[in-house]
Every structure is written in structure tokens, then in C-alpha cells.
Amino acid sequence: MENIATPTMGPSDIERWLDRNLLSVQKPGRYTGGELNQQVKDWAKVPFRVALAFPEIYELGMSNLGLTILYDILNRQTEVLAERVYSPWTDMELAMRAARVPLYSLETKHPVSEFDLLAISLPYESLFTNALNLLDLSGIPLLVSDRVEGDPVVIAGGHSTYNPEPMADFIDAFVIGEGEDVILEMVEVIRSWRAEGVGRGQLHRRLAKIWGVYVPSLYRPHYAENGTLDHIEALAPEASLPVIKRIVSKLPEPVTNFIVPMIDITHNRIPIEIMRGCTRGCRFCQAGMITRPVRERPVEEVVGAIEAALDATGFEEVGLLSLSSSDYDEILALVRAVSDRFRDRRLNIGLPSLRIESFSVELMDLLKASSRRGGFTLAPEAATERMRKIINKPVSTAQLLETSEAIFQHGWHTIKLYFMIGHPSETIEDVQAIADLCKQVLKIGRRVMGHRARVNAGVSTFVPKPHTPFQWVPCDTLDQIEAKQRLLKRELRGPGLKFNWNDPLETMFEAWLSRGDRRMGQVIYHAWRRGAKFDGWGEHFNYQAWMEAFDYVGLDPSFYTHRERPVDETLPWDHIDAALHKRFLTEDYLWSLEGRTRVDCRERCFACGILPKFAELRRQNPGEVWECPEVRSPSRKIKSIPLLPA
Asked: What are the pLDDT digits (tens) for 320-350?
């Protein structure tokens, strides 16, 4: 591939090139900027510049709330500017490489290499090769060890970085946890470092002092003879072991002046985070484990944010976002308040992640007036009660069928059911039960509304993720996955049924990267050199490139996927503390083997580890009002947590 090693184009050169070439690529609106509510500051007058990068196409990057929040926070600072960067699609990339046009920001068209800080969002593993491609298009050395003082500082954050080791060779510093506070602390450290003109090694040591920041260059992995990780060695006194995730004291003020895109994007709506964290304890769910503790916004704050955002954008849909929206304490009051306040504006309300067990007919009635009557989504994840106990989602089949009947009775004609195959201890009978359950739901729908009833089954394949009780279990083999999918393809067809599944090879790919150690960095690099990018797009996923990269590096991919790990093995992410005790995760894993479940930890605390760290945060911030929704009485009243002694 043509490398853009030393970009020489400035903003005016890039704009002239765009004027001549934009009409030759798909969707030129991806590359122009100039949208309503974008923030443009005077480059010459602002001393510190941040490029916020989402290494995917514009339509997906613009839908990412995390980067939107950071964009708002940074641009509120008078001496900082933040601009956006997304990955160009393949046609645009070819044109840019042919003309040696460097990757640039949308707001002012400055090359990314001219920014002080490049912050990359990595919410999922399929973006890893795109991140390398983004660096290369920017003319920034891919390896941390090759960068000099004039290069941007490259940081990354997001859920996939809770195991940062596969990307450790390419990232100066990782933000582990929540970024709203730490981003400003990192900006201040980098500003002072640039002013002093000392080496990048000094910068790394200073960044490592910040709570929640992991600097890979200050750590060295050591491996045992059998190839497993023996231990991680800290190479500097500033390198803490473990690195504890960052937790914000309270949810930041909601963003309301959302950028209105030039073209249709994945989510054309106002996204408002109503709650962060989850107390359900599903054993397969990394997000539910790593985003603890639960923090909720008041109803009044949500309604006020929606009103301000509607006035600023003109959107007609709002998404009330959380991992479990119907677990929000005042969900009925919130939906009622939003429906009443915006009745005349014909606002469509989206409530993702509704729980089967906490759903109510009253909530359905409220949604009925403010939601498009299309599909209604439920996620039982497994089709037998035995399997649901193993994964700690103890919903009865009778409860699921009753909820499905109520949904059809309230006018929804399509129910989408999400399942996973490949859970620990799963049998082929458990897989057959997925098809049987879908047919039962369809039968209910036909009885209620005739042939308009539809059931769509989405069946993904389970990947054991770091910092979950299932982090020790192996993945299904390709043969096992394909056999299960063949059964479902045979059973889930006919009028009213639709079956969606994912490519088993993509499951292997996700498992390598989410469960890998630092040696995976060389595999990522050599796969990218062989053309791997846009790995999340089926038509671009290049399995052969990954196999060749594993062979070149001398690693066995099955080492990361099909091997059950002993509970006393040192895991590649053990030096990253997600504020969960490893003994809690171990106990929960052992409980799963017995089919034992835990109740929602709003009802009972199981000492997962978050409470002491949350209490310490409270002690460090005495001006804040601190309450922990993790420990609640049956009346749902929040109990304050005790202060730790000084």
C-alpha cells in the first residue's frame, strides 16, 4: 500500500483537492464537515488541539455518543479545540493515497499529524486494524517506539481496551474506564510536557500517574514455558499494578447541541444516557460488569435535555439509552413526562434494552402513543431455563411467553428475539429449544393478530470476554458453531419466521483480539499489512490475511479461543482492575457450573468490589452527594454507602 509517511499538504491544499475529487467517491458528505452545530475554533489562537477519532466510516462514528461527549467537554475549554476524524471508505482511501493526501479533520481540514493529541475510540475489537490504517493515513508512526517529540500523543479508550494488550505496541496511553474527567487531566499533562520540551519517556511517566491511565511502555510481560502469561513487570515507579479503572463521580451534563449530519447515519436521533451501569449480573455481559456502579439521571434533567436538543437539532426521535432501560427507577414517570411534554411535536421515543422480567403493561401503553409500531425486541439469550440459570438470566419460559402475548395484544406485529449459542455447558437440545421457543411465540402471535405476526430470531455466537465470570471458558469450535447454525437454519424457516446469524470466522476473530496478550500486536500488524481492515464488514473481512499473520508470527490462534483456562492462570488483563474482585468473578463462575443464580444486586450486595472503590471516590470528593444504587432495599430506596476511614 502507498504510505503517507510525511504529509506536506496544509488545509487549503486539502480543500482544493476535495473540490476537485469529492464527486468521484461515494457519499461525499462523509468528508466535508460544515454541519450544523459543529465547533470551529481559530486554529492559530488555540494553544492545544485534539483530534477525536472513531476508526470507522462517518455514519457509524457520528452515532457514537462517547466521542460526542468528549467533543463537547473539550470544546468548552477556552484553550483547547477538538475536531473529528473518521476512517474514509475504500474508494476515498485509494484516492487519498494516490494523491498523498493525509487524513484530516472535518472542521478545519488540518492534517491529523498536526494535532497535539489523537484520541481514538475503540469500543469493539473489529476497529483495531482500522486504527492502524488511520495512523498510517495520518503519517503517524504506527509503533510507539518509533514516535518522536513532534508526533501527536496517541491515546485510546473504550470497552475493548479493558484488555489493552493486543494494541499495546501502537498506543501511548490507554484510558481504562470513563473518560469525562480524565481527558482534561491528560490534556494538562501533555500541554506542560510540550512546553518543557523533554522526551516522550518523561511524558509516559507523567501520564502513568493519572488514575485510570495505562501506559504500556512502562510494563513488560513475561511468559511461562507453556506460552501462558507468567506476570507483568512494572518498569517504573509511576507504573501502578494494577491500573484501576476511572469512575466519574456523577454523569456529566447531557450533550444537547448535537451535530446534525449531512447524510443519513446509523442513528439519526437524540441520544440521552438516562442511566449508566447495570445490576443484573448476566455472566456473559462485559458491559454490565465493567460499567458498575449504576448512576441515574433525574427525570427533570432528561426532559430538559431533550427539549434543548430538539430546539438545537430538529431531530424527531430520541433514544433513552442505558444497558437496561426498564431498570431505570422512574422509567414510567420518565416516559410519561416525555410523552406529555412533547405530545404536540410527534416525538418518537426509543427505549432499547427492555427487560423481559421488569416490563409492564403500563409501560407498553405509554410507549404505544410515542413509538413506531414495528418490531419489539426481547433478549432471552438462551431458550431453556437450565441455560438461563447458567448465564444468570433467570427468566421463566412462561414469563417470556406471557410478555410476548402482551406485546402482540398491544399492537406490535413483530417480535425480535435475541439469543446466543455457545454458552458454557450448552447441548444441541438447548439449541433446538431456540427454534421451538420462536415457534411458540409465533403461534401466540398468530392467535392474537393472525398472519401479520412475525418472529425474527437473531442468534449470535458467545465469546467469553475479559472481566466477566466466563473469562476462563473456551469458545465453541468452528465445527460446533456450524453444526448449531445448520440446525437453526433448518428449523427457523417458513412463513412468519426469520433467522439471522453471524459468520463463525468472525467469532474466532473477535475471540483472538478480546482474549489475546501483547504478542497479538504483531498478528494485528501483519494482518493489516496483508490488507485486513474494516473487519466488521462481512464483505471486507479477510480471514486468510489473519491466518497468514498468525503463521508469520508463529502463534497458534486456538491458544486464544479453544483452551479452557484454569482459574489460577494469570490472564493477559489481570493488571487492569475493572473494580471487580477476581474472587467474585471466580465464585460466580463456579456458581454457574452448579446452575446457581444471583438476584439483582439492587436487592442484595454480593461484594463484587465496586463499593469500596466507590466509597473511596466519595471520600476524595467530599463536596459531592454520594449514593450507591448497588445496595437497595425491596422498596427500591437507595442506601448511602459508608465512608472509608481516612
From this structure: 999 988 899 999 999 999 999 998 888 888 8
Residue ranges of the alpha helices (H) in 2-127? 11-21, 58-61, 65-75, 90-99
What are 378's three cell numbers? 426481547
- Rg of the chain in Å (alpha carbons): 25
State whether residue 248 is helix, strand or coil.
coil
Quick one: pLDDT at residue 6? 55
595 by DSSP, 3-state: which? Answer: coil
DSSP count for the chain of H helices, then E strands: 21, 19
Q: Which residues are registered as beta bridge partners of 272? A: 320
- Beta-strand pair 375-381/414-421: parallel
CATH 3.40.50.280 in the chain is located at 11-244
Map 388-426 to HEC letters. HHHCCCCCCHHHHHHHHHHHHHCCCCEEEEEEEECCCCC
Check if the beta carbon of residue 167 is closer than 8 Å to that of residue 156.
yes
Beta bridge partners of 223: 229
What CATH code would you report for 11-244? 3.40.50.280
Q: Which of 290, 351, 343, 281 is nearest to 318 (CA)?
A: 351
Asked whether 561 and 508 are in contact (CB, 8 A), the reply is yes
pTM above 0.90, yes or no: yes
pLDDT, one tens digit per residue, over 151-160 is: 999 999 999 9
